[in-house]
Please model this.
Amino acid sequence: MKKLAITLSILPVAVLSAFAISTANAQSGPTVKIDGSSTVFPITEAVAEEFQISKKNTIKVTVGISGTGGGFKKFCRGDIDVANASRPILKSEMEVCAKAGIKYIEIPIAFDALTVAANSKNTFLKQLTVEQLKKIWEPDAQGKILNWNQVEASFPDQKLKLYGAGSDSGTFDYFTEATVGKAKSSRGDYTASEDDNVLVQGITRDVGGLAYFGYAYYIENKNKLRSIPIVNKQGKAVLPSEQSVIDGSYNPLSRPLFIYVSEKSLAKPEINEFANFYLKNASKLAKEVKYVPLPAKAYGLAQEHLDKKKLGTVFNGEQEIGVTIETLLKREGKL
Model:
């Protein structure tokens, strides 16, 4: 990914928005409008940059980060052409889109290892179980679980400061369901943001802090953070990595990432070109920004769905925990 993209990815939301607006105003012509997940943002940002270079800036691409839920709100109003999503579209969102006449093509683009991270100076935290994560994050923990030794007696009597995704984030939906057992079920006394960079900055300043965010943001800041091994359903403590996502051992926190392309927008040449360019470059650029590319067969199926305009979702409006690359391939093949 080019230096510009890396620089942009660490800017706050307001600055990113200003950048998108100022560059769009500075240049007339067709525009591809994208918004949604901050987790998916690094991939789409990289694709957008390469696409604009390939088109010699005759087509402008703007990419926002209002969170998966925020992106779907805009998408189902017809305000944007493409929605970045770190979870599948939900039934409630499908209904809103249907009422507005918005139809879409669901395109898986990569896998993420949702990462639980601590400050690099934290030396006591060797691993965490899903049960411990629930104890930390469940609604009943609010105002009660405030020190590390309340999580585990062997942990030090040190203040526990939490950083996590905001309520419009698909990461928030996925993490809460995977750990607490119910989507959006979370304590509220933590630093919340749809921008993963805010969470990274918080944890780097807080020795007793704990955060969760997309794997790419961890890798970008791994010299300042520690990723914490998560005990999987087989009882093994596993670190997030490309290999642990591929072999399925990093569960339950590995998950597919998506873009949703509006059928109506796809009729525009610039959107069609961008969507095809995205699929042709997704594998290379997903790996470049430190997510896990899908097998070539998955991108081939997605290209077929795009070419034939196969509408809808293979997830039936439900978020599922523990979907593997193999499972995703089987489903996509049946669409």
